[in-house]
Amino acid sequence: MKNAEQLCEQVVESITDELEDIDPEKLVARIAVLAQLALRAPDAFEQKSDDEMMETDTDWLEDAAIPLELKAKILALKVCRNRCLAHVESETALDIAQPVIQMFLTVLQYEGSFSADDADSPWARARLRLQATTSLLHLSTVKKYALEVSKYFVPIAITIQDPVYQVRMTFLDKLISFLSQRRIHPMYNIVPFLSVHDPELDAQAYVKFALRALPKALTLETFEHNFIRLLHLLAHHPDFAIDVNSIPDMAGYIQFFLELDGTSDNIALLFHIAQKAKTVRDAESHVYSENLYAAYAKAKSWNLDTWPGKVRLPPDILRPLPSAEATNKILKTVYLSEEALSWLAEKSKQPNEEKEKKPRAPRQPTAKRKAAGPKTNGTSKRARTGQKRKQDDTDEDEEPSDSEMDEDDKENERAMSSPAKPEESESSSEEEADGEKKDKPATRVVESDEIPADALELAKEKRSELIEQLAEVDDEVGELLIMDEDPTTPQLAEAIRRATISLKFSPVFLGSTINNTVVQPLLDSVCAYLPTPAESKVTAHDTSFPVSSPRFPAAAPIIQYREWERTCTDYA
């Protein structure tokens, strides 16, 4: 038959162009035709196949290229999530959410499929994984669902190491958005630390900003107290192993945490938390308990002072050991191989060796200075500063000019009239004379963690008044007061923030900038208690309408803007 190849190409092209919008009843017939063409006219079929029909090698599809069937699945997951959010206030909310949460977990366990037998394409599985994870994050913002979702914290956290970049990046953006607004539990703050081995993700920016912006009490709750959760997460990590080849990767997560969060003030606390890991067991399995003890061994070589305070470990992931004998046995057991211990010992020596090998910079010889001669008034002339000694050493023997003498006289008079500073050392004065003035800090940081004994009773009294005032505007503090429980400092900070944002409470600070009193707590409280830009309602005003006309939300849709415009026109 003439033009058979060309006709087959046209048939293949017409069928493939209609596949996305075709009726399900006709879909089987079209696929059957393609099956025959693939067998009888392979050249025509392969030409279209190579051009655009199948993209089996890609792991991600853009929104415009998503097939209708996949869009339907994604929207179905959203329907389930939104139904749970809509029934938050009902008594059956948890009964509705539990099977939905379990379905999302199933999608994560089967890497984006609803069952192990599904043969979905890689890009379809990636989209479903992302939707399931973000839906779980949305549900974790609700207090009723947060505890149920937290049971599956490990598979949610591992999403940041998804093989598809778009899944990792979108998940991290959504996670940081919720963490910045404090809508989810602080334990999710350890998830960004799992991106240490990913060169394409930059989670350090959020961690550094949070450490800098949060007050000390919230920083402890957000990062330091969750260090045990990082160890627990590593113990449950699917790639966890105690052989010498896997230890560097696992140790990298802990090192990354210490590099960003570890300071001289909290390193003893972190070591204390790591030590307590060997005094408990994992809530799920003894295998994970041994992994946890091995994770503790990575920090065993630290040489630190003991932590004087007490730390309460999270009971949702850890359980106490049955007896003191079991605790002693575990403490004496080494859970790492000799090769792994040798690697850790060599790793701990490397920083010290680098410091020892680092050569010292050669000391620059100081310029020879001429002794200052006596002045007419009997006092010796002050040595000239480096700003006036920019000439070469060959010009040092020249006598100073009259103008320089006058300037030196004025400087000497100011020096004689100003009070002496005994704390400055002789070496610093010599450096200043040579023109090497030391940079002094622009501000003075004053830290004090203890209340003076004479003000302790007054502080307790005022704290009780603060709790009573908060109980009137915040339900959580009111419940604690009714139950005769003393709220913790983080609970008080969160209550103050909620009440301040809702305009029910106004924190007041008494201090003085001259005496540097309460300046630092005031600046910390701006970050801790005031709303972020995302939590503030922004309104706009059209200057073409009267000033007294209604305000319009700047982020509202254009349809609402048209309605508002008509309202303002009628108002004018």
Explain the overall architecture.
By secondary structure, the chain is mainly α. Among the domains are: 4-54, no CATH class; 185-356, no CATH class; 465-535, no CATH class; 539-571, no CATH class. Helices cover 54% and strands 2% of the residues. The protein has 24 helices and four strands. The longest helix is centred in the middle third of the chain and has 20 residues, at 338-357. It is globular.
Compile the SSE list and pairings:
Blueprint: H1 4-18, H2 24-40, H3 42-53, H4 68-86, H5 93-109, H6 122-140, H7 143-150, H8 153-157, H9 165-180, H10 204-213, H11 216-222, H12 227-235, H13 247-261, H14 267-276, E1 280-282, H15 286-297, E2 318-320, H16 324-332, H17 338-357, H18 402-417, H19 426-433, H20 456-473, H21 475-482, H22 489-501, H23 519-529, E3 539-540, E4 552-553, H24 558-571
Helix pairs in contact: 1-3, 2-3, 4-5, 4-6, 5-6, 5-7, 6-7, 6-9, 12-13, 12-15, 20-21
Distance between the ends: 78 Å
| Radius of gyration of CA atoms, rounded to a whole number | 34 Å
- Characterize the biggest β-sheet: 2 strands, antiparallel
Query: Which residue ranges are poorly predicted, with pLDDT under 50 across at least 5 consecutive positions?
Result: 50-56, 366-442
Beta fraction: under 5%
Overall helicity = 40-55%
Nearest-integer average pLDDT: 75
Secondary-structure element series: HHHHHHHHHHHHHHEHEHHHHHHHHEEH
In the sheet with the most strands, the strands line up as 1-2
**Helix/strand/pairing class, anyone?**
mainly alpha
Query: Which outline best applies?
Result: globular
Count of alpha and pi helical runs? 24
Count of DSSP E strands? 4
